[in-house]
């Protein structure tokens, strides 16, 4: 282990880690918003809306995230969408994870006992009222873990934006692996950074899961 | 140090789970062709005894012998593993919950052992399966999966699976307890047939009538010990111990 | 510069070859990930600590880091300790190991969920420890985990796109070649996406069929 080298590259990695965290956090927000939209679209009674929700989820889950990023970043200018790498990364990752998160949300809603919806409807709640007052509060708890899994996948998936030259952890690692010829030292630093970020997120998910369990 | 000419010999068997002694020194000897029924209240150690004979449980003390070979030999590691696999091939065991392999057809359930363990050819094994299934009255189920069978049918396949290894002794642990009452007789009939063929059997059961019909000898266990044993005619009609009387009274009236 | 999909047909063969390599990668890495997954599961559950702990550390490391980083390590890293894997092999090994770790976790849970009575049933006939695993427990664990492992295969098809970064001429890489000649990223990435989507549909249908057959044999 070349400790001296590791100390020398560490500052670069710390900056890169901040970028990974920023991108992940922003795409998480976008992803959750897309998931909420898409899940309600998929559960909607209005067929064209439902169809739109289905199309979004199916297309973004059915193709590689890398292609989606490339299409947005390299193909975007052809249709008048000019984005910086960072912005393209956030939007691309957010749209992609949103499709997966939509399935987590929908799965949680469907997992709530059927009798709950029926009971609500017999009282006279409308479809959306049933969703809002009866199903969603119960589903919220059920979706924490799956959404947590999605979030961790998002953090690992954020490595992809190194391919559109966002200087995050994996980009930095690749650069130093080819310039220092010390692959294992560099990998070790990058691995520790990812694991720390993921560990913190996993603990946060545990915390939320417990909070909602009591409520 | 071969103890006797018996088929199964249990000597001073002791078994504890933590501080709780489940078998408190059991002696039992079963002659070739003999049928022994073991009865007793729940938790008295009947299953533990039977499972120890097959070495599914390891005794803390005592010896188990099968046809002159010690089952729980003080061997270690691979040597013991080889030894016990050989011994188990000579003992058939039938469980309360069948333990049929759900991912195999009835045919494969029966033939897997002979083919893998004895190197039997496919054709010979298939013929054996067909013959055993005919014997337990399930010739037409050879290609079914266990999930398509009733409980009684499953248990009869389990018996055929054990018989396919040509065992010297059959061990039954409450083979009919998990069955609906109307399915009990078909399994009992198969066991009676084995009795008529002089198969050596040890049968743990809660059915006193069946025990008295097939068994040559009945053991009453309670609290990890054999309280009383004898021929069915004497034990069921004139038990000498108070605990046996109390147990039989409850069961015969039920 | 508007869109013009007529740039695609001249490159149909190039994309077709790319798709072919994507399929080769997915199938090979899929097999590696399945076999290694079973191996990981059995090791974690039954191997002595000196073997099980290093394997668990490896699993933990691979679960916590991005596939792309792992590919860089395997392709650019191993060369420097004298292991020079051709890109295709590095790609298959990288993808295979990455998904083996997840499959291993799934199958381990599947093995733990098989009724202990199954092992007893096998042992009572005279099957050894390993034979009981091989003939009775693992086949059931694999059957019960088919849907979850199938999902991993679906993920694998898409993630195989990442090996374009180490220069394997699969679908993404083929598209990039075409783009470098035509400067038409939008059209070619759309075409690549469509091909992935199609391959994905076919894979899903295939997995559905397998699941149905497994379901029927129980
Ligand atoms: N693995 C174990 N760990 C701890 N205690 C056990 C274990 N297996 C059995 N026992 C205990 O040993 C005692 C004897 O159990 P055993 O299953 O042999 O009884 P049994 O006579 O077969 O009863 P039943 O008629 O209910 O089947 C019971 O009190 C049981 O709770
Ligand atoms: Mg019992």
TrEMBL record, chain A:
**What membrane topology does the UniProt entry give?**
Multi-pass membrane protein
- Name any one Pfam family assigned in the record: BPD_transp_1
User: Which residue ranges does the record assign to the ABC transmembrane type-1 domain?
Assistant: 13-205
Tell me where in or outside the cell this protein is found.
Answer: Cell inner membrane; Cell membrane
> By its UniProt entry, which InterPro entries does this protein fall under?
AA_ABC_transptr_permease_3TM, ArtM/GltK/GlnP/TcyL/YhdX-like, MetI-like, MetI-like_sf
Per UniProt, the keywords (alphabetical) are:
Amino-acid transport, Cell membrane, Membrane, Transmembrane, Transmembrane helix, Transport
Q: Which residues cross the membrane?
A: 12-39, 147-171, 183-202
So what family is this one in?
Belongs to the binding-protein-dependent transport system permease family. HisMQ subfamily.
| PANTHER family the UniProt entry points to | L-CYSTINE TRANSPORT SYSTEM PERMEASE PROTEIN TCYL, MEMBRANE COMPONENT OF AMINO ACID ABC TRANSPORTER
The protein in question is named Amino acid ABC transporter permease
Species classification: Bacteria, Pseudomonadati, Pseudomonadota, Alphaproteobacteria, Hyphomicrobiales
Automatic annotation (TrEMBL), chain C:
The chain positions of domain ABC transmembrane type-1 read 19-207
Kindly give the membrane topology term recorded for this protein. Multi-pass membrane protein
Sorted alphabetically, which keywords does the UniProt record give?
Amino-acid transport, Cell membrane, Membrane, Transmembrane, Transmembrane helix, Transport
One Pfam annotation reads: BPD_transp_1
Q: InterPro entries under this entry?
A: AA_ABC_transptr_permease_3TM (IPR010065), ArtM/GltK/GlnP/TcyL/YhdX-like (IPR043429), MetI-like (IPR000515), MetI-like_sf (IPR035906)
Q: Give the signal peptide as a residue range, or say none if absent.
A: none
Where located? Cell inner membrane; Cell membrane
Origin: domain of life: Bacteria
> Could you tell me which SUPFAM superfamilies the record lists for this protein?
MetI-like
Q: Where are the transmembrane segments?
A: 20-45, 57-79, 85-102, 186-203
Family, according to the entry, reads as follows:
Belongs to the binding-protein-dependent transport system permease family. HisMQ subfamily.
Q: What is this protein called?
A: Amino acid ABC transporter permease
Organism for this UniProt entry: Mesorhizobium retamae
